[in-house]
UniProtKB/TrEMBL annotation, chain A:
Gene3D superfamilies named in the record: Nucleic acid-binding proteins, Recombination protein O, C-terminal domain
HAMAP family found in the cross-reference section: RecO
Domain DNA replication/recombination mediator RecO N-terminal, first and last residues per copy: 1-78
Name of this chain's protein: DNA repair protein RecO
Name of encoding gene: recO
Lineage of source species: Bacteria, Bacillati, Actinomycetota, Actinomycetes, Micrococcales
Keyword Metal-binding annotated: no
Recorded family membership: Belongs to the RecO family.
One Gene Ontology biological process: DNA recombination
Annotated function: Involved in DNA repair and RecF pathway recombination.
Keyword Cell membrane in annotation: no
GO CC field: bacterial nucleoid
Alphabetically ordered keywords of this record: DNA damage, DNA recombination, DNA repair
Pfam families assigned: RecO_C, RecO_N
PANTHER family: DNA REPAIR PROTEIN RECO (PTHR33991)
TrEMBL record, chain B:
Biological process per Gene Ontology, one example term: DNA recombination
Role of this protein: May play a role in DNA repair. It seems to be involved in an RecBC-independent recombinational process of DNA repair. It may act with RecF and RecO.
HAMAP family: RecR (MF_00017)
Ranges for domain Toprim: 79-174
GO molecular function: DNA binding; zinc ion binding
Gene: recR
Zinc finger (C4-type): 56-71
Keyword check for Zinc: yes
Family classification: Belongs to the RecR family.
Superkingdom per UniProt: Bacteria
Name of the featured protein: Recombination protein RecR
Pfam family, one: RecR_C
Keywords on record: DNA damage, DNA recombination, DNA repair, Metal-binding, Zinc, Zinc-finger
Length: 245, 198
């Protein structure tokens, strides 16, 4: 079948030739798709901004021998403008699309990753939550979908109760995938406050009301763990995590 | 795959921006088959460009001298600075004959996913320049696409600290495109209709 159609979110674009772009997308039904958008860089292009990063569109493709070509695109979510208008949102959106690109492939459908990313970009564009919290929640959930769910509610080694249950500082180990009780904690393990452990749990569950109640110090601790956890699992790391805060 | 040096040349061309494997092959065979004088001239030109062309120490545009021809021109209005991504954008704006101020070339747009952060662009140089000179208006003319918009957002926030009036090219430039493709009329109108952003 030479023509096909899918919903997709644009992850990134590359210039190609005089006025074309290669658009890398995560689609709802087919995993990643890389396709050519002809003439898209001309200011009179029929595509306009519909194939810019962070945009969600209903796209029609023409199958080619090496690369497919985009023949039509209808906007479903115009999130790019609101994201580009706020640099913190832009930095966060970059981390999210780069992570989605690294966690998905061209051969495998990834419907859950698609829905998670679109939901997170929509929330970011609407400014529903502080951008940093949206990023950290997205990363924890995207890694969980990829099979690397962290645990913040019990000891990852013995399943026992944590000091955090009684408000105590608790060992949190990236390499072990979460919290460990004092008996199981390797010597020299980093320790986090009970508030940080609680925040990580609410971010993983997407409980926004409770997540936003935490102050900047707690958020910064949680951010440190989420970044380290992401870089640990994704080979060669996420470049965009170096920017923004 | 071709043998040895031919494939090396194809690979080398393939690394250039906008050149796919097929074009790289076409250029390579064009060179292999062309008159030797043409190829020698091209090779010499490449070496000379590498040697002679540098970046203007004031605005970051390409130049054969310490200051580019626009920065050296005393008739230009030094109170206006137009910020663009690439030297080719300077050429596109010069074509409109609308703008008589000076430029500042960033060297790209902020794109974290491509490893380009604010520190990788000529932003510190811009801030230093604005602190040292009397400037009435900074015009942000980054590309009308997402990375260009985000770069303008970043600069607007940064320039607020200097209290310099900032404007952004407006009307007539649909988002999604590259500045260099805007025709003279559209680009000229965008200049006239620029909006104050801070
Ligand atoms: Zn234990
Ligand atoms: Zn100059």
């Amino acid at each position: 079948m030479p023509l096909y159609r899918d919903e997709a979110v644009v992850l990134r674009t590359h210039k190609l030739g005089e006025s074309d772009r290669i658009v890398t997308m995560l689609s709802r039904d087919r995993g990643q798709i890389r396709a050519v958008a002809k003439g898209v860089r001309r200011t009179a292009s029929k595509f306009g901004a519909r194939l810019e990063p962070f945009m969600v569109a209903d796209i029609q493709f023409f199958e080619g021998r090496t690369l497919d070509t985009i023949t039509q695109a209808e906007t479903l979510g115009a999130y790019g403008g609101n994201i580009a208008a706020d640099f913190d949102r832009y930095a966060v959106a970059n981390v999210m699309v780069e992570t989605a690109e690294r966690l998905t492939t061209e051969d495998e459908p990834a419907r859950q990753q698609y829905l998670l990313l679109v939901g997170a970009l929509r929330s970011l564009a609407r400014g529903e939550h502080p951008p940093g919290l949206t990023r950290d929640s997205y990363l924890l959930r995207a890694l969980s979908l990829a099979g690397w769910a962290p645990n913040f509610s019990e000891c990852v080694r013995c399943g026992g109760e944590l000091p955090a249950a009684h408000g105590g500082g608790t060992a949190l180990v990236v390499q072990l995938g979460g919290t460990v009780c004092d008996a199981c904690a390797p010597p020299g393990s980093p320790r986090m406050s009970a508030e940080t452990i609680a925040l990580l749990g609410t971010l993983l569950a997407g409980e926004w009301g409770r997540a936003k109640a935490h102050g900047e110090g707690t958020r910064a601790q949680a951010r440190g763990f989420v970044s380290a956890y992401t870089q640990w699992h994704i080979e060669r790391g996420i470049r965009s995590l170096r920017y923004g805060h | 795959m071709y043998e040895g040096i031919i494939q090396d040349l194809i690979d080398e061309f393939g690394r250039l921006p906008g050149i796919g494997p097929k074009s790289a092959q076409r250029i390579t065979f064009h060179i292999v088959q062309s008159q030797s004088a043409d190829v020698t001239r091209l090779a010499e030109l490449l070496a000379t460009v590498r040697e002679r062309v540098r970046f203007c120490t004031q605005c970051g545009n390409v130049s054969e001298q310490e200051l580019c021809s626009i920065c050296r021109d005393a008739r230009r209005d030094a109170g206006l600075i137009c910020v663009v991504e690439e030297p080719k954008d300077v050429v596109a704006i010069e074509r409109t004959r609308q703008f008589r101020g000076l430029y500042h070339v960033l060297g790209g747009a902020i794109s974290p996913i491509d490893g380009v952060g604010p520190d990788d662009l000529n932003i510190t140089q811009l801030m230093r320049r604005l602190a040292d000179t009397e400037v009435r208006e900074v015009i942000l003319a980054t590309d009308p696409n997402l990375e260009g918009e985000a770069t303008a957002t970043y600069l607007t926030r940064l320039l607020k600290t200097l209290e310099v009036p900032v404007s952004r090219l407006a009307s007539g430039l649909p988002v999604g495109g590259d500045l260099e493709f805007a025709d003279e009329i559209t680009l000229g109108r965008a200049f006239e209709g620029r909006l104050t952003v801070s």
